[in-house]
């Protein structure tokens, strides 16, 4: 069983994304005058949250696949 880095990465990016989303939603719109009025914090928060969720889903999927392979290996060794 190897180390799966996707779970801590998913957690980290999701947390950072949530922080940026909250900051972008609560901040003053005049802050975004230099970025052509685009709420960069909000949009990048959504991107980071999406990436974190993807990493978390892939981590869970990988853990299930590893458990399934282990179960298959145990069933084959018990029949021999």
Layout of strands and helices, then pairs:
Layout: H1 6-26, H2 40-79
Helix pairs in contact: 1-2
Explain what you see.
The chain is mostly helical. The chain has one domain. It has two helices and no strands. The chain starts with 5 loop residues before the first helix and ends with a helix. The relative contact order is 0.18.
Task: Give short descriptive properties of this protein.
80 residues; mainly alpha; 2 helices; rod-shaped
Global Rg: 20 Å
- Element-level helix/strand string: HH
Q: Can you give the helix content as a percent range?
A: over 70%
Tally of domains: 1
Total of DSSP H or I helical runs spanning 4+ residues: 2
Query: Largest sheet, described in full?
Result: none
What is the residue-averaged pLDDT? Answer: 88
Compact overview of the structure:
This protein is mainly α. It contains two helices and no strands.
């Amino acid at each position: 069983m190897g180390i799966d880095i996707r779970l801590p990465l998913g957690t980290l990016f999701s947390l950072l994304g949530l922080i940026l989303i909250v900051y972008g939603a609560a901040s003053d719109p005049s802050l975004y005058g230099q970025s052509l009025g685009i709420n960069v914090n909000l949009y990048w928060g959504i991107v980071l949250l999406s990436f974190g969720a993807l990493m978390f889903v892939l981590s869970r999927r990988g853990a299930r696949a590893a458990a399934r392979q282990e179960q298959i290996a145990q069933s084959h060794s018990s029949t021999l």
